[in-house]
User: Fold this.
Amino acid sequence: MRLSKLFFHTFKEAPAEADIISHQLLERGGYLRKVGKGLFIYTPLMWRVLKKISAIVREELDRAGCQEISMPLLHPAEIWRESGRWEAFTSEELLYTLKDREDHEYCLGPTHEEVVVNLISNWITSYKNLPLNLYQIGNKFRDEIRPRFGLMRAKEFLMKDGYSFSSSSEGMEEQYEVMRQAYNLIFKRLGLDFAIVEAHGGKIGKGKSEEFQVKAEIGEDVVMVAGDYASNVEAAVAIAPDYPFESTLKERKRIDTPNTTSIEALSAFTKIPPQQILKTMLYKLVFTDREEFVAIGIRGDRQVNELKVTTHFGAMEIVAANEDEIKKLTGSQAGFIGPIDLKLPFYADQTCQPMTNFTCAVNVVDIHDTNVNWERDIPRPAEFYDFLLAEEGDRCPHSPDTYHIQRGIEVGHIFNLGTLYTKKLNALFQDEKGQMQPFWMGTYGIGIGRTAAACVEQHHDEKGIIWPLAIAPFKVFITAVSTKNPDQVKAAEGIYEQLQKLGVEPLLDDRNERLGLKLKDSDLIGIPYKIIVGRAFDQEGKVEIESRTGEKTLLTPESLSSWAKELKI
Amino acid sequence: MRLSKLFFHTFKEAPAEADIISHQLLERGGYLRKVGKGLFIYTPLMWRVLKKISAIVREELDRAGCQEISMPLLHPAEIWRESGRWEAFTSEELLYTLKDREDHEYCLGPTHEEVVVNLISNWITSYKNLPLNLYQIGNKFRDEIRPRFGLMRAKEFLMKDGYSFSSSSEGMEEQYEVMRQAYNLIFKRLGLDFAIVEAHGGKIGKGKSEEFQVKAEIGEDVVMVAGDYASNVEAAVAIAPDYPFESTLKERKRIDTPNTTSIEALSAFTKIPPQQILKTMLYKLVFTDREEFVAIGIRGDRQVNELKVTTHFGAMEIVAANEDEIKKLTGSQAGFIGPIDLKLPFYADQTCQPMTNFTCAVNVVDIHDTNVNWERDIPRPAEFYDFLLAEEGDRCPHSPDTYHIQRGIEVGHIFNLGTLYTKKLNALFQDEKGQMQPFWMGTYGIGIGRTAAACVEQHHDEKGIIWPLAIAPFKVFITAVSTKNPDQVKAAEGIYEQLQKLGVEPLLDDRNERLGLKLKDSDLIGIPYKIIVGRAFDQEGKVEIESRTGEKTLLTPESLSSWAKELKI
Assistant:
């Protein structure tokens, strides 16, 4: 491509709203053009990168035995109602919904489990045609609460989504492993530094699931890492550091604690360490058919992992109780809810089990009890369970190391759904014994646009983007130093044609601009190699090659073919 | 690919709603799976075909100097309001509209003029960066009144849309010509029998425009063909056969014509030929800011081309006046509207100009006047203009031949928009003299899915689809006659591997089924060549090759490579 013909535009400044480096550089390099909040045009440069990432994804998935299809973006509401997800998604307003001229309801697909299950269950009747692994690459939609970070969190975004179907739990696990390997290869080929992280499936289900997290300071995800093991914070099983609770039980006392609505305030006022305070949280659990309130106790220095609560109770959604609900259910107010005389199901995190002589609220404003003990003063909770939000320094059951926090960008997710959806949607096949069974299903995603942005987060310098060769929009930038020197211009043109024939994808800067500006543009948009036809050419017939990371060589134009082959450009 | 692994399903019967052959065969061959009315999943077979068509489109467009981008499918309403098309499209309910969580309005893009003009006008400031020709391949949406014919008229469909920007009218014409050539090459490579047809732009504008129409009996479009010239019926300029009107003017008479609400009835009752009756139609023209009524006269044997009326008056929409409106405006009723004593603007088609001694209604029920003559009895209309709907046998101004009707499937459309949109959207560049000018814009579309369906309409027989080599999902089908004959099976496997290495895309039928069923499936899904390892192999070491159109040869497995190369498979 000749730069004079390329539709591109570089900018000195990124728009003010671009607050992470990848968004800034992609905007400055003219990769994106915003159409509306969270809606972007991918320019020729961006689209070349996205197509290259897609091609690598396709190659590895096809090699792994997957087959590409394409499903519509408009989904009839009925199939989402059947799976029970219409309510779940619309209640969070993440789903774009619309009606056609006949008043039928649709949503814009944020994911395609319902549609693909419908396809499979109509066409696959026997275990003989399993396993099956289908995928597509296309746009997805989410009515984001706060679209931001450019391609990281957009309203419309390019994704690969895939779905596997197996005839047994073991078959499902095999497919999961196949996809895990394929993803591993894909992200390696894309030159990313990433971790495979145990994950909590959130809304999708509660089977085994892992995320592919690209390490990045600006990552929105908190990853807990202990040695070789990593988990996203929602899924992390963690053991809080022990606290030396006394073994001699003391006498329970009621004390005045005015305005101590937080653990901090209570601890400061009473001089009791937070570890010796039992905190009680009141939650509303939303199920498809009902709502329930539950109280969760936790050691005062720690936080409840709300997703763990949701999953444990099989709820669709969790909401902290509001002032009115607290008043109605406990007669008290936030800050003074406690397990004593509580007319609600009470559960506690495992951190509460060893507690002795602890302090807790008693559902009376400005009052707490101290030296409270299980059984003696209050019954043990219905269950001690893991509701703990992991923190740095916690012990990890999978590693001798304690956890530390890393931030990550989730670029991939693999998920063993088991028979969750296929049972709901009554998607059955005949097994070897002639029995009807629900399919074992897996779901697998890769954010194509987000992967490109994550790549920029990891590969850039003060001058701009440094694309890995595999996905650079062009691999080699060529220019003559002086556009008035016909020999240089001719040589640059010759090299351009030579490399084009080799399939190297060169970009010839044939603009009548000064060299500095040209090289700046090349560095900003991140072309891996620059070939400069200048003084060395005039003097000794050699061109200067500079890699985007600064290595320089001089070569004759004739030797460029072998140079390109050697570097696998 | 091994057929045992391929996700596919063939059916003996097509669903009842599939009423054209392409829809039937694509359903029977398992290319499509309906998700809802006008919404389809493209299975691995279909997606392979669509990807191949897309690849050919990309190749030719890139060669023609176009650049690929990708624009969002969600369009903020504001940019459509700016161009004035929000009202036009929503009034016809063709636009899917929706709101986000912040109550901002969007539509699902049926076309991207607004979005691309927004992009261009922000980035291109000088004539030096023109011309520019951008395209994308992606899904489009139309809330069709009657989704049908499978991929032909769906709610969501795969399209290539492209947009060119030039600095002058001549530059625009050049781009138009470049695209015309590229389209010509594309449809030729796709093996289609098509015509380039002069077109009426409909809603899009009134510059020069042509359609690429694939000839097919089931085509929804009526194409008027005269010699080498073709035009869609909406755009066709036609000269109705002359009628020998008398030159001596007769005495005007008022006659009773009870219940003669149609030309047929009136002619039958009065014995006056339709050619001597002046028919008057009453229309409501809808403009962006107002509505107007107009009466159009036409010779009684012919029909008004409503699109010509809309364009002539620059209206957004045209609607036949209803009973109430007729009553209010003329005091009369349908069938008895005439130019006499009419208090409305009256225009007439050119067919009316030579009329003498004609009969027409007088806005009184059950009454007509005969022997009416222009000027003597009624003033000439405001204008005689071409409002004629062309018919078979009409004369054509571009050819000595008269028109005959052909039916076609519109697979492509190219359009010189001039400065219609860029003026509205205030999209300007600086010309050579430093003056600000609106861009000259062209718009170009190819229905990718519709092209695939059109291809099936033209290439099929009673056994199934006959894909042209260029877009067949697999090019060669291979099978052993007896799955119990290990030599045959081994040879089939060997040929499969050999062809795979050549990049031929073979499909190995390794199913344990009888030969007849296998060959039937291959013919139904339209694979161009079958290689059968059977008796000839056992006896003389040769395999049978049969083309989809019936030619048979015997070859040794060793010579298959040169066979494949020769046929450019």
Observations:
- Chain B has a mean pLDDT of 94.
- The two ends of chain B are 16 Å apart (CA to CA).
- Chain B touches chain A through 55 residues (CB under 8 Å).
- Residues 253-385 of chain B form a domain with the YbaK protein fold (CATH 3.90.960.10).
